[in-house]
Amino acid sequence: MMRRTTLLTGCTALALALGATACGGGPVTPAGGGDKALAGQTVTVAGVWTGSEQKNFQKVLDAFSAKTGAKTQFVSTGDNVSTVVGSKIEGGNAPDVVMVPQVGVLQQFAQKGWLQPLSTTARQTIGADFASVWKNYGSVDGTLYGLYFKAAHKSTVWYSPDALAQAGVEPPKTYDEMLKAGHTVSDSGLAAFAVAGQDGWTLTDWFENIYLSQAGPEKYDALAAHKLKWTDASVVKALTTLGKLFKDKQLIAGGQKEALNTDFPGSVEKVFGPEPKAGMVYEGDFVAGVAHDQFGRTIGQDANFFAFPAVDGGSAPVVSGGDAAVVLKDGKNAKAGMKLLEYLATPEAAAVWAKAGGFLSPNKKLDLASYGDDVTRATAKSLVAAGDSVRFDMSDQAPAAFGGTKGAGEWKLLQDFLGDPSDPKATADRLEAAAAKAYQG
User: Fold this and answer.
1) Could you list the residue range(s) of the whole structural domain that residue 85 is in?
2) What's the sign of the alpha-carbon dihedral 344, 348, 354, 355?
């Protein structure tokens, strides 16, 4: 899913926040057969990606085809991957591989008996080349079903250096400083933030960064597992903090109404497009891919980031996400699908998208030289070095009905909150009611 580094100071801040260490390349492990062993077979892959992400993933699939002789077909599911894949399975038209953007959906698929456990080759590669956190998130009841091919660093705020320079502000270190800097940017002629409220998942990411920093990792983990209710005072406090931004018409480009009609690519365009309307846009590292591919921005020069700042004296948050490849039992070509997954586990496959941009890999063996710019290289290095200390996107850990369905659950309730942030407690009550129902189901 679209969920994803800068003045050198911004890059350094992120690296320090994650405790960056060196990580190097390694030998390419042959996978999927190098002798055209899959010639004549077609592997169908379903995933949420569209636009530049779909285009760049197709380059990876093309490399697999060149290596194995297999043809590939990508089917975009839109955000409702759970519903679409379920319908395809029921209709006898299941894809072979699904790129699952949420831990909760992966768990749901496994519990329904839809998934094939990963092959010995895939398990060995993941065990050797990935931090254990990625193996844990890809497993259900001790069985490994998912390979996290694409990771996201979701604690980055992207900005136009020209906009901040014109306003005379530096990248902030705290949330309050960020809002203050936003007002200064607004006074100089641009809105502070472009907010992609049309896509509910972006709003969950805003909440998660605030909550992790403000409430701390233990409560974050408890809320993610619904061992802590959404009516807890810590949730109301985080919503109040987020609402302070949402209700400030000086900070959001076009105000709340326009934000609710702005999708993620549109929010990036408002900052990095030909007619800028805002100075900053919060989202993950994948903002860089859109800014470069669609709007010709040079990352590190006219598109930069700073780490999502600390809230109320807490630690700066480090939220991650990712897309896991799984193999469906009911796919017409599941064996070839497993060969694709084995290929995706290699640094060779990751290097294809790394070179194209807008991509981070959790694979420790991927040579950092594969990335096309220093900003992305530093982000990838710090994410890999963070190992098991990062926190996975909370909404992606929830059942899809609550954390991953367009027009429902957390996505819809936070969109409602963006439209009217006047009553954080009432929103917390609604979130708890929706969560209780989804987790019980």
Assistant:
1) 8-20+30-153+321-392
2) negative
